[in-house]
Amino acid sequence: MQKQQYDQLQETVYSEIMPNGLRVYVLPKQGFSKTFATFTTDYGSIDNAFVPIGQKQSVQVPDGIAHFLEHKMFEDEEGDVFDTFGKQGASANAFTSFTRTAYLFSSTDDTAVNLHTLLDFVQHPYFTEESVEKEKGIIGQEISMYDDDADWRLFFQLLGNLYHRHPARIDIAGTAESISRITKDDLYTCYHTFYHPANMILYVAGAVEPQEIFELVRSNQAHKEFTPMDHVERIEVDEPATALHSKAVERMSIRLPKVLLGYKLSLHSETDNLLYQEARLELLLETLFGEGSEAYETLYSEGLIDDSFSSEAMIERSFSLAAFGGNTPKPEETEARILDIIEHAQTEGMDERRFERMRKKLLGQLVKQLNSTEFLATEGTRYAFHGASVMDAVEIMQQVTFDDISNLLQSEFRIDNRTTSIIDQKAEADA
Q1: Is 70 a catalytic residue?
Q2: DSSP annotation of 254
Q3: How far apart are CA 84 and CA 366, in angstroms?
């Protein structure tokens, strides 16, 4: 068991790699009554081409299969695992992102029992042809629901504009057509490749004793056998640095139009210092468009944006982007004003005093988040997959300089890697 102390935050993170390769992290929080645990595989929606474990030839699986697999994991011969967690006083859930699939629970009691349940159900796949076919209808309804969600459509239209071939442009849940091609065998192929312990992390934060957690996991894993595996071989696509389309407009029945501007960035979580790159990107976006900035206040007072306006920074395994936008009565005018603000910042420079204010604001938010067991477990896992620690985020944020964000603005925010996504109102006759 390894022990890493963070004196500035007065926290200690314990870790250990099990003989089967499973990485386990425990962050005890004194005075807390709740425990939050995540069991996460380094596998998400973009991993649709890979070499299955034990084979030499790569395969291409249907879009949406990672999300489909997440759904199916909650069923076994005994029934629904949600019911088991409920009877044990725990709240369970799961999510699939572009690069991760996580299973989680929170509880205030019986942590050991719930942790056994979490480990056992995720490491016990049970799929039948009948249950797979039944799930297609359930997920098909979920896909239809997201098709009617204007914010979801706005974001994936933006990704479709940015990426030529990268699977980030594909909806995480896939399409009704793609999931119709998923078979029981496809699910087992993905499961055995990506749900290997060597590709997974268990992260426990809250009211726990580290030694007890590690003894529990060692005992649990000792009774299970897995095929040896060094690493997962993913098939990468050749993605140009430029955006595919500069703009796209979709029309839906909505109360207010929406606009989202995005830039395809060259930062990758596997090859760059993820904490540093995220810190300077977040500081840049807050300095440019954060609430309280001159740009935000001006656009808001002119009625071009409302409090839905926000920015997003995303740095993942093989792609990254920055985006900002929200509701607006005049999407074209708002787009033009945002571009003027960025161009002015590139030619005239940004306000360094505002940068320092935004640093204090983001540091305050970060310190507050470090008291959340949910944040610690989920973000702790994300950084751990890239050899970093969420507990270093405060120190890294303090190290970012004004020149760092100015250089980022000049190098990554260009015309050729930019796009605009607009969801406008349907004409009355079409509504």
Answers
A1: yes
A2: -
A3: 34
Q: Which residues contact 153 (CB under 8 A, 6 or more apart)?
A: 146, 147, 250, 252, 423
Angle 131-145-324 from CA coordinates, rounded to 5°: 125
CA 110 to chain centre: 29
Question: Could you read off the pLDDT of 339-396 as tens digits, one per residue?
Answer: 999 999 999 999 999 999 999 999 999 999 999 999 999 999 999 999 899 999 999 9
Sign of CA dihedral 354, 359, 360, 364: positive
pLDDT digits (tens, 9 = 90+) for 136-162: 999 999 999 999 999 999 999 999 999
Query: What pTM did the predictor assign?
Result: 0.93
Q: Find residue 258's DSSP bridge partners.
A: 327, 423
Q: Which of 70, 135, 282, 286 is catalytic?
A: 70
Cβ atoms of residues 258 and 328 within 8 Å: yes
Q: Could you tell me where the beta strands, DSSP code E, fall in 90-199?
A: 91-96, 101-107
Exposed/middle/buried for 414, CB within 10 Å: 0-12, 13-18, 19+? middle
SS3 193: helix
